[in-house]
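User: Could you write out the 3D structure of this protein bound to zinc ion? I've included everything you need below.
Assistant: Certainly. Input first, then the structure.
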Amino acid sequence: MTIQFSTKIFPQADLQNAKLLKSSLKSLVSHNTDCLVLGFSEADLQQFSGAKAKPGLLSELDALLDGSLKHAKSLGDLDAKQASVCMLRAEKAWASNGVKAKRVLLLGLGDLKSEQNLLAYSKVARAGLKSLSGGSIENALWFMPSFVLDTGVATVADEVRLTIQYAGDQAYRFGVRQPAMKFKAKDAADTFRHLVFATNNSISKEVKLAVEQGAAMVEGMNLAKDLGNLPPNICTPSYLGKTAQGLSKKADLKVEVLGLKQIEALGMGSFLSVAKGSDTPPAFIIMRHLGGKANEAPIVLVGKGITFDTGGISLKPGEAMDEMKYDMCGAASVIGTLYSAALMKLKKNVIGIIPTCENMPSGRATRPGDIVKSMSGQTIEILNTDAEGRLILCDALTYVERFKPKAVIDIATLTGACIIALGHVHSGLFSEDESLVEALTQAGKSSLDTVWRLPLDAAYHEQLKSNFADVANIGGRPAGSVTAACFLSRFTEKYPWAHLDIAGTAWKSGAAKGSTGRPVPLLMNYLLEQK
Ligand code: BES
Ligand code: MN
Ligand code: ZN
């Protein structure tokens, strides 16, 4: 079961306008909902407190709620501090004032003057959504505290999409979506399943569109999370191919899956050198969402699809090796983003490309020292078979030249070094194209699925020199993420290109182990913000 999102228009609702305050509150509380969610600031609380109390948001609300707010305040439960929550349950007397809401959840917004930004809003939204979850609340009416309207960095649409993204994160249950995977300890779906955004005449159009986009994005994120979380004996290259093909029946997507013979015919010697150690055949997936004009150059997304990375003959240590099932999260984010784009009927041409295989040791596996020929014609000396992501991506990056792309972005759990550099906060961004850097950085800020730029200049290319081939596949320990990106850049000369290293952001380890669905929000916001 998935969570539903919708909007409801309260034509005049405006809590900033003193004249409309009373009628706005009246119309909101008289909506039949399990929980009405409202925000209030420190200034609102001051107006409500002490000898100098003046009429304002909280006093008007208190009148409708028959003194419940004063009571909560006297108990010390009403705090305007950012992201504090106060849940009020309906009492008999509420009904006589026309209140139909069964609960009112008050969210502390903090000091609005100094804290108006998307990050502040995100903390408030998370706290609010948490209070709605896990109990008996099934639906809620969410009146947007408009934090970001005038800050320029983000819009009310970003706020709405972010709220939906977090609600989706909170509702996600692997065991509910994949019941066959949890045999005994079954996950239960959250009771909270319908979030309604209250809008007024001035923002209703914008919010309605953002709700549709956000809901489509959650579908794509859920799919990306499922694919990441599924075990590597289920989520194989052919499973990814079948999943992508299945989507073409649900949304406006054309999907092609090339098999071993076709990959060989294309001359992808580098990709095949990774696939060859495994008994499971590779696949090369091509997804097209052509929502733009026929002659419009496409944006191409390329995702690393290693369904399990043992390291190959350069075998990884055993500890936490299970997490290498997540080495296809780049592919999952591309599949999820294309699905989202198709569901929201995005008016752009977007192509998703996924080279996918396993990296296994065997009698047929590539050895350290082997030299292979890439589709581009460049020869590669494979000095470490665990640096396999770049080997499958480089051929895909050559393949995409045929689309004459407007931009190519590859997404990959490429290097452990990226986790050392940036931790689990930002994805690594590598590009020499300033406008792509600018666009992806902005998309990161407006989705809070952020990136941080790392260098890619000539000096680092030195580390990739080989005595025996055109290029080596590793550049030693220093700046491991940078040399990996430098390797890829050698195959991207024909178009504007950016590389995202999502090794630290695509999944969480530890007790909360699981796929995050990142960077679907980043990619979606990037696509939405493209002119
Ligand atoms: N898939 C890994 C990168 C990775 C490691 C992501 C750990 C997340 C957590 C990649 O294929 C890999 O093994 N990279 C090597 C490169 C090295 C051999 C140059 C790495 O990072 O150690
Ligand atoms: Mn590896
Ligand atoms: Zn890998």
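The longest helix spans residues 204-229.
User: Perfect, thank you.
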